[in-house]
Amino acid sequence: MAQDMTTIPTRVDAHVEIDALHHLRIGGCDAVELVNSYGTPLIVYDEDVMRRTIRAFHNVFRAAGVPYQISYASKAFCTLAMCQLVYEEGCGIDVVSGGELHTALSAGVPAKAIHMHGNNKTVEELRYALEAEIGAIIVDNFYELNLLDELTREYGREVDVLLRVAPGVEAHTHDFIATGRQDSKFGFDLASGQVQTALRQLTDLPFLRCVGVHAHIGSQIFDIEGFQLMIERLAEVYQYGLQKLGLPFRILNVGGGFGIQYTDEDAPPTTEILAAVIEAVKMAFSSRRMPLPTIWIEPGRSIAGPAGVTLYRVGSQKQIPGVRNYLAIDGGMTDNPRLALYGAKYHAVYANRADAAPEDTWSIAGKCCESGDMLIWDAALPNPQPGDILAVFATGAYTYSMASHYNRIPKPAVVFVRDGSAELVVQRETWADLMRRDLPLPKRT
């Protein structure tokens, strides 16, 4: 029977609905029924939200009439299904480990559509990348440059590389996710001349074909100024490599970091920022009389984040008069450590009575034996009732991918939803799964 739908009137919840039973619906699926079918904790991804986001990025580039490549930053959320989805939508895959590379290849993504990041790629990871003949490797430091030179000589095989630049640009974001400033573990330092030294070294390495430069200034960025300054500095580097050294530059990779909305306090102008980034590249290259490069971007959070909703069963409560109300859920920092890591904020409702008015503030606690295991501080919610299911929005990025087995808690299941249908894409782990690699002590006489 058809049910009346009402869009939740907050932007962070704009892609979900409430039905006549007052249940939250995600991708046309009743969240309560999803929990009944798949259990909790459960991470639910709305496929259409991710596909629409990717198509919006494509549309901005096409409207600007520039050569481009969108590469999904798979560290945000990397599974077979996710790699398949973004590749179907015309994206390459950015990987940062052998495990992510193996996942992307196993998902059927062509090796040439994959490029590899990382500040400490192992010999095994670089061998895997070279043997698979991936599209490009982003070189992060002198140690890696020399190691990659040795390996490519051994294989007798050329590989496209980009040089990662630490441009000394401060993004207005949390210290732990700011990556472009001078004091960073990532990239060749621009201010001290490391970039120029590395480029000169690349002119003498026979199997490393340096096709461009890369920088990434951080995550959860809401304004354009940092990007504009980064692009100016990258353009100077590009000009030096192209015109002074004769390197075969054709790519300018400006990274990702586009912010998303976690709460109503956030107002990210994502497509506007991308349009401004493209315009800044055009201006920087035109003023230097250089041909426009292929512009690469690496969105991860902005694709996966808004599409994810995590569902939990409500458990114990603790009320401390005049201090705080605690409400515990059957998950926490094991499936989402972001608050503990850098103070992340979220918006939540009860999925089984999604339009109920708030009555008090409740701090959402996880079930781990850790005081820092909190998910939300002082959320405005109706007072909890037995059977409530808490829905936490914008949990699609850096939640499951950062999940752990602390307290030997299994990782949650993941489903993709679309047009009223749900597809299990990650099975729930069991207690037996946790012990799969354990070995007992040998018997001793």
Automatic annotation (TrEMBL):
<comment type="pathway">
    <text>Amino-acid biosynthesis; L-lysine biosynthesis via DAP pathway; L-lysine from DL-2,6-diaminopimelate: step 1/1.</text>
</comment>
<dbReference type="Pfam" id="PF02784">
    <property type="entry name" value="Orn_Arg_deC_N"/>
</dbReference>
<keyword id="KW-0028">Amino-acid biosynthesis</keyword>
<protein>
    <recommendedName>
        <fullName>Diaminopimelate decarboxylase</fullName>
        <ecNumber>4.1.1.20</ecNumber>
    </recommendedName>
</protein>
<feature type="binding site">
    <location>
        <position position="370"/>
    </location>
    <ligand>
        <name>substrate</name>
    </ligand>
</feature>
<dbReference type="GO" id="GO:0030170">
    <property type="term" value="F:pyridoxal phosphate binding"/>
</dbReference>
<comment type="function">
    <text>Specifically catalyzes the decarboxylation of meso-diaminopimelate (meso-DAP) to L-lysine.</text>
</comment>
<dbReference type="InterPro" id="IPR022644">
    <property type="entry name" value="De-COase2_N"/>
</dbReference>
<feature type="binding site">
    <location>
        <position position="257"/>
    </location>
    <ligand>
        <name>pyridoxal 5'-phosphate</name>
    </ligand>
</feature>
<feature type="binding site">
    <location>
        <position position="398"/>
    </location>
    <ligand>
        <name>substrate</name>
    </ligand>
</feature>
<keyword id="KW-0210">Decarboxylase</keyword>
<keyword id="KW-0456">Lyase</keyword>
<feature type="modified residue" description="N6-(pyridoxal phosphate)lysine">
    <location>
        <position position="75"/>
    </location>
</feature>
<dbReference type="GO" id="GO:0009089">
    <property type="term" value="P:lysine biosynthetic process via diaminopimelate"/>
</dbReference>
<dbReference type="GO" id="GO:0008836">
    <property type="term" value="F:diaminopimelate decarboxylase activity"/>
</dbReference>
<feature type="binding site">
    <location>
        <position position="301"/>
    </location>
    <ligand>
        <name>substrate</name>
    </ligand>
</feature>
<dbReference type="InterPro" id="IPR029066">
    <property type="entry name" value="PLP-binding_barrel"/>
</dbReference>
<keyword id="KW-0663">Pyridoxal phosphate</keyword>
<comment type="similarity">
    <text>Belongs to the Orn/Lys/Arg decarboxylase class-II family. LysA subfamily.</text>
</comment>
<feature type="binding site">
    <location>
        <position position="338"/>
    </location>
    <ligand>
        <name>substrate</name>
    </ligand>
</feature>
<feature type="binding site">
    <location>
        <position position="398"/>
    </location>
    <ligand>
        <name>pyridoxal 5'-phosphate</name>
    </ligand>
</feature>
<feature type="domain" description="Orn/DAP/Arg decarboxylase 2 N-terminal">
    <location>
        <begin position="52"/>
        <end position="304"/>
    </location>
</feature>
<feature type="binding site">
    <location>
        <begin position="298"/>
        <end position="301"/>
    </location>
    <ligand>
        <name>pyridoxal 5'-phosphate</name>
    </ligand>
</feature>
<dbReference type="InterPro" id="IPR002986">
    <property type="entry name" value="DAP_deCOOHase_LysA"/>
</dbReference>
<dbReference type="InterPro" id="IPR009006">
    <property type="entry name" value="Ala_racemase/Decarboxylase_C"/>
</dbReference>
<feature type="binding site">
    <location>
        <position position="342"/>
    </location>
    <ligand>
        <name>substrate</name>
    </ligand>
</feature>
<dbReference type="InterPro" id="IPR000183">
    <property type="entry name" value="Orn/DAP/Arg_de-COase"/>
</dbReference>
<keyword id="KW-0457">Lysine biosynthesis</keyword>
<feature type="active site" description="Proton donor">
    <location>
        <position position="369"/>
    </location>
</feature>
<comment type="subunit">
    <text>Homodimer.</text>
</comment>
